[in-house]
Amino acid sequence: MSPGTLLFGIGVVVAVVAYVARPFRRAPDDLDAIIEAWVADEARHLPEPAEDGEERV
Amino acid sequence: MLSEIGAVLLTLSLALAGYGVGAALWGIRTGDKRWAQSARHATYALAGLMGAAVAALLAALLGNRFEVRYVAQHAATFLPFYLKISALWAGQQGSLLFWGFLQAILSAIAIHWPKSQARPLVPWATVLLNLITAFFVAMILFHSNPFTLLAVAPAEGQGLNPLLRHPGMIFHPPALYVGFVALAIPFAFAMAALLTRRVADWPRALRPWMLLAWLSLGAGLLLGMRWAYDVLGWGGYWAWDPVENAGLLPWLTATALLHGTVIQEERRDFHLWNLLLAVASFALTLFGTFATRSGLIESVHAFANSNIGGYFLAALIAALVGAGNLLWLRRATLRGGASSAELLSRQGAFFLTLLLLTMLTVSVLVGSLLPTLTEILAGQRFVAGPAWFDRVTGPQWAALLLLMGLCPLLGRTASALRRLRRRGWITLCAGALVTPLAAVALDLRRPVALIGFALVGWAGAATLAEFVQGIDRERARTHAAPINALWRLLRRQRRKYGGYLVHAGVILMAVGILGTRLYPFSQEATLDLAQPTQVGPYTLVFEALEREPREDHQAFWAVVSVYREQTYLATLHPRLDYYPHTEQRITTPALRAGAREDLYLVLAGWNDEGNRASLTVMINVLINFLWLGGLVLLAGGMLAFWPRWRRPAWNAVALVSGILLLSISAWAMWGASHGAVASGAGRPLVGQPAPDFRLPLLDGEMIALQELRGEIVVVNFWGSWCPPCREELPDLQQVWEAYQAHPIRFVGIAHKDTRSGVERALDEYGITYAVGLDGGERIARRYGITGTPETFIIAPDGTVAHVHIGPLTAKMLSAELDVLLERRESELR
Q1: In chain B, which among 12-51 make CB contacts under 8 A with chain A?
Q2: Looking at residues B669-686, what average pLDDT do you find?
Q3: Which residues does chain A have within 8 Å of residue B44's beta carbon, measured at their own beta carbons?
Q4: Do the beta carbons of residue B206 and residue B118 sit within 8 Å?
């Protein structure tokens, strides 16, 4: 088998395996959802403002 | 390199098909959708890989890579582009690869776009379809690899078998293969339906695939029939050859399946029938392949030296055993459904149709296997010929026509007889009377033919009545013009009226079959140059034998003028190609198509001098109804098959494509020459009036044939550029001088010549008789000459007495003039 054919074969195998295995790949993380979750979490830990508008000490 | 790439692609395909089966099974077992999805991806990728393998073989064929054994055996540098493409399926290895590719691609389409009812069936269908593809790929890889190399590459390939060098070859095998492959899809989904116990809805979901299979097989069979008629030169179109039957058998079961699914959709009945028919259709494609590639049956079409028949037999047994087992296990699921005991109802008529089509299938199958069966059972081969098949299947076809007439008039419920009495019996009986009368008018009077034509009229009237009633209803609804109403009807109810169009096609085909089978005419005729010969109602005149060297063969053709009742019809060129390498003689018939019949000439041989030719003359009565019916049948099938697109533009494209396809088919049948040459007029026959002419002579005088009435006139077409004409001139001059004292005139008509050339020739040979130039070939056309020299001897009464094609000697001419002079003298006395 010539080197060209070998390379071609390897290329096809890689492409096919990648395509066939696609359903098993983990879905990519949803960045928007992560940011929104972080913002919500941070918001829960923020100190509440004083009634007269001054910051509590 | 291409060969290695092909082998790599096939190996990967096999692995991928195996993975597809395993992944789908695992997905079903675990319920994990990711495995099912991965199996589907494997199916799509498999189609891509098989497509790439086909592309590799095509590249090798188009690039003349003769180091590849398959290319060396089936291609050659001189083959035109389209034949190099068709070489892909001309041999066993290539055809299996192509089949495997179609199997992969149609499987991918079927599981990617399933109809909603078929979605739950997809996982099991994926298993089965990948299994079938894997079987084909394994066959190709281990037993029939088209990519094997030769130790030494030849400089030139063997080329395609001369019989296969026909434009139809580009369409005929692919159409059959699509049909065979498409039948695997309903089979796979039917088995999936059994496995999942969802036997009710699969036919509705799989209907497009059944229609595709039916349509493709029908187109393939029709193309095959036309190819046989145009190329093989035996004058027929269907020889009941086992390989032809191998295509017909699944078409019959597919027809039955399409009818059975209608009742399953309407009445929830025929579950078992439809499952059995789906299994039978698929099994028959395997059987056909096994039979043609195993040496089991002898046929001109069978693949010689094939070693894969056994594997197809194993696949056939596996399919039948598996399906039978599954049907037995699910027998409880198949019970039930509405059932009607009335035979004279729509359901009953459909049941009879299924029964008849099944009987026909069994009859054809038995006839195909009869030589083998009788050899095994009695030690003696009994070959069932066309007469056997006609006798056995004829009454069954007739019964189908009878049902075809009854079915449209029967209601879906009981009281069908009353309905029939009210609606249609007058129409049916009128049809059954009119057609035999028309047949009698055409002089077709055999009792069996008249019965056949009565059935044709019966079924035709019922079909026509359906269209007329449909148009009436549409007009009442929309107040549209009749043609618009028909158009709306065809658009709105494609399936129903597509089906009726198919019936109309079958009826027209039946007319053609009746004519050709019951009124065969074949006669061997030996024709002498320029001598009219009567064959049947036609007069044939052999004018010349032409020959021409081609790339790898010698082409010979006879030029034959055809007359009927003294009227010139056409000039035909029946051909014979001789291939010295293989010592093959391929005859290509010439035919003149007519509404009542085709005249069909085959060149059988000729003598060394080329002045005598042997022809086989056939007259094929009503054959064009067969081809017309075939086109109507395909049009109906396409109408029923074509999906209703949401975008109007797509519908328009579909319509234009369909019309274009049918127009091309019609042109191929009736527009192309088929060895007939268009000619304004033929030569006048002996005894016919000689066409009048006025010819300006070189000396400025004008001569008119009509003014020479009472004298014998020798009209010689010649040219100063033509060596045989120049050789003939001294003889003509000699006779002219010898007969000066008699009422004989000579007229030389210079054809395709110049004044100076003619004058030089006249001076050189001392010609003194009248000579003129035929400007614009006006006179030559009226006399229908095909070359020079040609001589017409015209009697004193203005009729043609003798015609000579080719050079004439003084002796011959004198003898004929003496006879004419003697006759003139006796008439004067």
Answers
A1: 12, 16, 19, 23, 33-35, 37-38, 41-42, 44-45, 49
A2: 77
A3: 19
A4: yes
Closest by alpha carbon to B199, among B128, B261, B115?
B261
Question: Which runs of consecutive H residues, i.e. helices, occur in B144-171?
Answer: none
Q: Which residues of B touch A20 (CB under 8 A)?
A: 16, 19, 23, 38, 41-42, 45
What is the torsional sign of CA B683, B689, B692, B695? Answer: positive
Residue A24: closest C-alpha in chain B: B34
Instruction: Give the pLDDT confidence of B385-429 residue by residue, as tens digits.
Output: 889 999 999 999 999 999 998 887 775 545 555 555 566 678 888
How many helices and strands, by DSSP H and E, does chain A display? 2, 0
Q: How far apart are the first and last CA of chain B?
A: 92
The pLDDT tens digits for B323-342 are 999 999 998 887 755 455 56
| CB proximity list for B159: less than 8 A, separation 6 or greater | B74, B75, B76, B78, B79, B552
pLDDT digits (tens, 9 = 90+) for B451-506: 999 999 999 998 998 898 889 988 998 888 889 999 888 888 888 899 999 999 99
Chain A nearest-CA distance from B488, in A, is 46
Rounded to a whole number of angstroms, the distance from the CA of A19 to the nearest CA of chain B is 7
CB contact under 8 A, B38 and A24: yes
Amino acid present at B636: G
DSSP letter at B230 equals: I
Alpha helices in B416-446 (DSSP H): 416-423, 425-441
User: From CA B661, how far away is CA A40, in angstroms rounded?
Assistant: 65
Output the CA–CA distances (angstroms, integers) from residue B606 to B527, B573, B711, in the order listed.
9, 14, 37
Q: From the centroid of its chain, how far is CA B77?
A: 28
ipTM of predicted assembly, 2 dp: 0.73
Rounded to whole angstroms, the Cα distance separating B659 from B667 reads 12
Interchain proximity A20–B8, CB inside 8 Å: no
Q: Which residue of B has its CA nearest to A5?
A: B5
User: For chain B, what is the total number of helices (H) and then of strands (E)?
Assistant: 25, 18
Contact B233, B588 (CB under 8 A): yes
Task: Report the alpha-carbon distance of residue B771 to residue B765 in Å, rounded.
Answer: 13
Of the candidates B100, B168, B84, the one whose C-alpha atom is nearest the C-alpha of residue B133 is B100
Partners of residue B353 on adjacent β-strands: none
Length of chain A: 57
In chain A, which residues touch B (CB < 8 A)? 1-2, 4-5, 8-9, 12-13, 16, 19-24
Q: Nearest-CA distance from B49 to chain A in Å? A: 9
DSSP of B438-460 = HHHHTT---HHHHHHHHHHHHHH
Question: What are B52-65's pLDDT values in tens digits?
Answer: 999 999 999 999 99
Residue A24 C-alpha, separation from nearest chain B C-alpha, in angstroms: 6
Q: Rounded to whole angstroms, how far apart are CA atoms A32 and A39?
A: 11
d(C-alpha B292, C-alpha B284), whole Å: 12
The residue to which tokens 């003298």 are assigned: B825
pTM of the model: 0.85
> In the numeric block, which tokens belong to residue B212?
């595709």
Name residues whose C-beta falls within 8 Å of residue B2's C-beta, 6 or more positions apart in sequence. Answer: B56, B59, B60, B63, B65, B68, B147
Q: Token pair of B84, please?
A: 């190099």
Render B103-127 in DSSP notation, one character per residue: HHHHHHHHHHS--GGGGGGHHHHHH
Inter-axis angle of helices B122-143 and B2-30, nearest 10: 150
